Amino acid sequence: MSRILIKTPKEIERIRDCGALVAETLAKSKEMCKPGVSTLEIDDFVREFTLKNGAIPACLGYEGFPKSVCTSVNDVVTHGIPGPYVLKDGDIINVDITSILNGYYADSSETFFVGPPKPNASELVVTARECLFEGIRVCGLPNARFSDIGAIISGIAEEHGFSVVRDYCGHGIGRSFHEKPQVIHYRQMLPGPKIENGMVFTIEPMINEGSYKTRLLADKWTAVTADGKLSAQWEHTIAITPHGVEILTLAR
């Protein structure tokens, strides 16, 4: 059975370098999320900017994924494939970027408003962001366990009348895209493993306006809400250090 990999300070530094590039790419992608811009144009930018900066778009070709970034619009929960869809006022879009720099991966996403947000969309996106940052915060508490992440996220989502997706989770990351552990975002009955120094993983809660249930489209990648209601996601790659929790996917 594979175990959770503990990263050295040098490895964390490498992931941090990649994370800074991911953060910069994501910030520039936000500027493109305007009415009249297609999701394919966002993909083109992400691919070109990543390559220009000496990195590799990790999504491109990963298990057959056809594009360099995931663009999940409105009721798309995750793994939306960029294409001809043109963004319009009132849309929300999650842009999920993973890059490889000098052999190390980093992964981050944010849900953006396209034009003025509708009230229900605004509350959903703000709540998803709160779920992420509260999930990060509990990782730094004494004797924290992975199950604490799902507990705090579930509580916040339920308080706002939303639900937490169960079909997809966060993950360890480093020299591979997906490593141990799986990071569950919903409440669990049993305590999970302890969170320890040197662990590096993503927290990426997907929060639905309605039911937590999802369905997969015919392309075998795009996951949408089963009831057609909105979904929002935020994600960071974090490291557990002797000095506390560090978010590695922040701009420098």
Tell me what the structure shows.
The chain is an alpha+beta fold and 252 residues long. Helix content is 29%, strand content 26%. Helix 1 runs antiparallel to helix 2 (39-52) and helix 3 (119-138) packs antiparallel against helix 4. The longest helix is centred in the first third of the chain and has 24 residues, at 9-32. The radius of gyration is 17 Å and the shape is globular.
Features:
single chain, 252 residues, alpha+beta, 4-stranded antiparallel sheet, 3-stranded antiparallel sheet, 4 helices, 15 strands, 29% helix, 26% strand, globular
* Mean pLDDT across all amino acids: 97
What proportion strand? 25-35%
Query: Percent of residues in helical segments?
Result: 25-40%
Series of H and E elements: HHEEEEEHHEEEEEEEEEE
Structural class by SSE content: alpha+beta
Which ranges are low-confidence, i.e. pLDDT below 50, for 5 or more consecutive residues?
A: none
**General shape:** globular
Q: C-alpha Rg, in Å?
A: 17 Å
Q: Please summarize the sheet with the most strands.
A: 4 strands, antiparallel
Supply the number of helical segments: 4
Number of strands: 15
- How far do the termini sit from each other? 37 Å
